[in-house]
Amino acid sequence: MTDPTEPRATRSEATYVYGIVGAEHPCHFEEVEGVGEPPTRLRRLDAGQVAAVVSDAPTELRAKRRDVTAHQRVLDAMTTQGTVLPMRFGVIARDEESLREELIEDGEAHLALLAELEGRIEINIKVFCDEDEMVREVATTDPTIRRLRTQPATSIEDRIQLGEYVAQAIQTRYDHIGKHMYEALEPLAERSVPGPPVKGAAVNASFLVDRNRTAEFVDAVDRLDAWFGPDVRLQRIGPLPPYSFVGAQEG
């Protein structure tokens, strides 16, 4: 399977993949349609112990709102009927036969992951800080920075050194915030994984949460957000299909 990041043409037999489910998953999709314009028809591809929900791949695939929304609606429909290994938007297999062979070959691994994810959802947390306030804080509380600021910057090297100390002090604050966040939220989650860097975010992490503990987890996020104060803001996204916990082998 491939995960294109640029618009591309696909051969007519190319197959768009939404997610992988166990063989017992009912896969009823009467109320949803696939990606593309006009929308593609969804179908189930059986492969031994597992199955994939697929459709024909559009001739051109772009991350437009319409198609991204269609992809998410399919996953939402699948999730209401059972456990799903969700694919991120844009996963395309060369054809159904190669996809079926891959699914059969990796069937045991897929089943193990389905068992791990059963009854669980993903919640993503991003932490944003007021950078100006953070600079003011380290400038007044960090003794090294305070000393350097009182001395005249007589050279470019002096200014670079001061900038490096400020950046290091801010990163230390970010690390402390992240440590406190993980300590508060990890006991309420099954697993957590760091996410890719996000512009403006001090921390980006996803948590695998038992559905029955979703409200408890959300309450803990709200309390943590209030505890950090107005200069630190927690952004919660979810519940989501557990994209971040499927693993690279699924993509």
Beta strands, count = 9
Report the portion of residues in β strands: 15-25%
What is the ordering of alpha helices and beta strands? EEEHEEHHEHHHEEHE
Query: Overall mean pLDDT score?
Result: 86
Radius of gyration, in angstroms, nearest whole number: 23 Å
Low-pLDDT segments, ≥5 res: 3-12
Structural class: alpha+beta
Helices, by number, come to 7
Tell me the overall shape.
Answer: elongated
Largest beta sheet, briefly? 5 strands, antiparallel
Distance between the termini: 6 Å
Task: Give the fraction of residues assigned to helices.
Answer: 40-55%
Give a quick precis of the structure.
This protein has 251 residues and is α+β, with helices and mostly antiparallel strands.
What does this molecule look like?
It is a single chain. With 251 residues, the protein is of the alpha+beta class. It is built from 7 helices and 9 strands. It has helices at residues 65-81, 96-105, 107-117, 131-141, 143-150, 156-185, 214-228, and strands at 15-22, 43-47, 50-56, 85-86, 92-93, 120-129, 191-194, 201-210, 232-240. The strands form 2 sheets. Strands 1, 2, 3, 4 and 5 form a 5-stranded antiparallel sheet that branches. A 4-stranded antiparallel sheet has the order 7-8-6-9. Strand 7 (191-194) and strand 8 (201-210) form a beta hairpin. Helix 4 packs across helix 5, helix 4 crosses helix 6 (156-185) and helix 6 packs antiparallel against helix 7. It is elongated. The chain starts with 14 loop residues before the first strand and ends in an 11-residue tail after the last strand. Residues 3-12 have low confidence and may be disordered.
